[in-house]
From TrEMBL:
It holds the Pfam family Beta-lactamase. Coiled coil: none annotated. It comes from Nonomuraea endophytica. SUPFAM superfamilies: beta-lactamase/transpeptidase-like. Residues 18-362 form the Beta-lactamase-related domain. This is CubicO group peptidase (Beta-lactamase class C family). InterPro entries: Beta-lactam-related, Beta-lactam/transpept-like, Beta-lactamase/esterase. Gene3D superfamilies: DD-peptidase/beta-lactamase superfamily (3.40.710.10).
């Protein structure tokens, strides 16, 4: 399968790893984009978007939880303008949210996966993920699983509705509209939270991960305890997982896992943040600062979060099924998507990075394909990873 695009000779390691992904690591179709000092140094794509159809320069696909980075960025834009206070209670912007003992929940808790509503207990109808009003109403009256702010657990499917409803209440615009008008269009990105129908023909269908020989502990918990948060996450998803590859789903403004783009779009979104642009330095520091860390109440492995973004996490000491994390520098922040896609920036390295693909991996992190590309970019920039797995500049 031919790899196409451009690669600065200095970043030949990235091209080599991308080619190895296709030749040796089960990659079907993918793209990778690296920007340094605002300049594109890697823009590669290759493999197949679908059987018999090559992955082209303009192929796009579902990037799953990379969406959360886009949603969080929208919140931080409002915060940078003084319209959103991260230390304010959510009820300042969304009064109904105070039901069931949630009145003290802060916006910061919602962004850092500390809100206590990673799932809903009451059964959702099959098409709930397309009904924003219904989801907002259900979350507003739901009882949290823990006292907000006291622990963290990945809000895999609820994050987008929680943060997105706050954005909607403040701006008067839907999340997808806000992102398009404030981020995608000004930056010239092919990146959608709500894909227009005329773009549908460019989408590479998602290929589910192979079932691994050993399941991550998250799935073990889900399949063994029907009342657990993992079980509710998989079994009470409002129909998203069974409909995620449909035109109807692609058109939905699903702020947790619904974005459609490619590596160029992911890197392009993080490019201004890597350069100290788009938000003031103080706001960017908040975006990069770790807010919650340790054992994740939902995923069952250690995770680290800033206010809306994933931080570098080294889980290589865990059993193989749970060992995937996302190894970046301590200055970096971004988000991975289910199956391995990832977008992030590293302001210290003035680096913006994006990777998207159609064949999902089975782990809970960015898996060996995305990590190999990330590692190659850091090595090229002269970083070392001997320090506890986190990349640092010697």
């Amino acid at each position: 399968m031919t790899v196409q695009g451009t690669c600065d000779p200095r970043f030949s390691l990235v091209r080599e790893e991308f080619e190895r992904n296709i030749a040796e690591r089960g990659e079907i179709g993918a793209s990778v984009c690296v920007m340094v000092d605002g300049e594109v140094v890697v823009d590669l794509w290759g493999g197949e978007a679908a059987p018999g159809t090559p992955w082209l320069h303009d192929t796009i696909g579902h990037v799953w939880s990379c969406t959360k980075g886009a949603t969080a960025l929208c919140a931080h834009l409002l915060a940078a303008r003084g319209e959103l206070d991260l230390d304010a209670p959510v009820i300042r912007y969304w009064p109904e949210y105070g039901a069931a003992g949630k009145g003290a929940t802060l916006v910061r808790h919602v962004l850092a996966h500390q809100a206590g509503l990673p799932v809903l207990r009451e059964p959702l109808p099959a098409d709930a993920f397309l009904d924003w009003k219904l989801m907002a109403e259900r979350l507003a009256v739901a009882e949290p699983f823990w006292e907000p702010g006291t622990r963290h657990g990945y809000h895999a499917l609820t994050f987008g509705f929680l943060v997105g409803e706050i954005i909607r209440r403040i701006s008067g615009r839907s999340l997808g509209t806000f992102f398009r008008e404030e981020v995608a269009e000004p930056l010239g990105l092919e990146f959608w939270l709500g894909l227009p129908e005329e773009q549908e023909g460019r989408v590479a269908p998602t290929i589910p991960a192979d079932v691994p020989a050993e399941l991550p502990s998250f799935y073990v918990k889900a399949f063994s305890d029907p009342s657990s948060m993992p079980a509710l996450l998989l079994g009470n998803d409002g129909g998203f997982m069974t409909s995620s590859d449909t035109r109807e789903s692609h058109a939905g403004e699903y702020g947790s896992v619904g974005a459609i783009t490619n590596a160029r779009g992911l890197a392009g979104m993080y490019r201004p943040l890597s350069l100290g642009e788009l938000v003031p330095a103080e706001q960017r520091s908040i975006m990069a600062r770790t807010e919650s860390a340790g054992m994740d109440a939902v995923l069952g492995v250690p995770t680290r979060w800033s206010a809306g973004f994933m931080k570098s996490t080294d889980n290589r000491h865990l059993p193989a099924a749970d060992s995937e994390g996302a190894l970046m520098s301590e200055y970096a922040f971004g988000h991975a998507g289910m199956g391995g896609s990832v977008g992030f920036c590293d302001p210290g390295a003035r680096l913006a990075f994006g990777y998207s693909m159609n064949k999902q991996g089975s782990g809970l992190g960015i898996n060996p394909r995305g990590q190999a590309l990330t590692d190659a970019a850091y090595r090229t920039l002269g970083y070392d990873r001997a320090n506890g797995g986190i990349w640092y500049r010697p």
